[in-house]
Amino acid sequence: MKQDSSWRKILDKLLPEFLEFYFPEIHRAIDFAKGFEFLDKELQKILPREDDAGKRVVDKLVKIFLRGGGEKWLLIHIEIQGYLDVDFPKRVYHCNYRIFDRFGEKVISVALLTDDDPKFRDNIYEISQWGFWLHFEFPIVKLLDYQHKWDDLERNPNPFAIATMTFLKTLGTQGSDQERYQWKHFLLELYRKGMSREMIVALYEFISVIMALPQIKDEELIEEIKQTTEEMQMSLLITAERVGIKKGIKQGLEQGLEQGLRQTISDILEIKFGVVGLELFEHVEQVTDIADLQKIRAGLKQARSVAEAEALIRTYAEEQSENGPRN
């Protein structure tokens, strides 16, 4: 359950990088300057997210625009590690056809296989009898194939090189918390590749969930890397602050400044504490006074834990709830 959720989230945030790393031919054909559109609502109308056997799979449907003009629907399947599905090609065909039948759109299907069986590579569904012939074949990428390309992965600046290393070392360290701890530390340190803030946040969340450790070991790891990442983190916070405030000033209104402050606070929460930090933002939305928002922003820079951040935000949120907005 956690793994499929993690793949969905990182795919939502870093689709161009995903295609560039795993399916470069498709990436070269897309004009990303025109944007792209996830069609999850359309997909949910016809595909269950979990089959009768409780098997997990990630299906993402996206509308992309081609460099030569026109648009295309792309269906991305990710098989979640932990089981083999002998009916997988049939299921991909079934998904592809149902989308075409429902919406009249031709769909290109691709698949990323994250299982741990090197022999499982089924990507053809075929029916042939009495002169009838149906042949359905789709491109696949097998994560296990990167096992012998570790040096290339370390040199590759694409965030999915790190995602792939995370997957491989998660498989290779099952049953050894200490070894997994060391590799998780190493992978988190790879943020120094000069990635964008969005990539860093997406990767941190992905690694934290995929390479699971007992809570006490995760807490130890966070404390250990805190000092080494402090300089980078503060740089990110300063950048986020500048961008957020500039948005507000550019609009030239008090409301614009308030929106800029809120964006900055959201960025700080996400950079410092990840998804858990963002869950606190609903309390920030209760605060409308600019002076209080500025105090929250300043206080969050110094907060060392989610608990400290929550206490700070709740102080101002509860004060406004009791006294109402200031004049």
What is this structure, in a nutshell?
By secondary structure, the chain is of the alpha/beta class. 58% of the residues lie in helices and 13% in strands. It has three domains: 1-146, no CATH class; 147-213; 231-323.
Radius of gyration: 23 Å
Give the biggest sheet.
Answer: 5 strands, mixed
Average of the residue pLDDT scores: 78
Determine the N-to-C terminus distance: 48 Å
The total of helices stands at 14
Can you write the helix and strand succession as a string?
HHHEHEEHEEEEHHHHHHHHH
Notes on the structure:
By secondary structure, the chain is α/β, with parallel strands linked by helices. It folds into three domains: 1-146, no CATH class; 147-213; 231-323. The chain is 58% helix and 13% strand. It is built from 14 helices and seven strands. It has a five-stranded mixed beta sheet with strand order 1-2-3-4-7. The protein has a two-stranded antiparallel ribbon with strand order 5-6. A hairpin with a 5-residue loop joins strand 2 (57-65) and strand 3. Helix 7 (159-172) runs parallel beside helix 9 and helix 8 (177-189) packs parallel to helix 10. The longest helix has 37 residues, at 215-251. The chain is globular, with a radius of gyration of 23 Å.
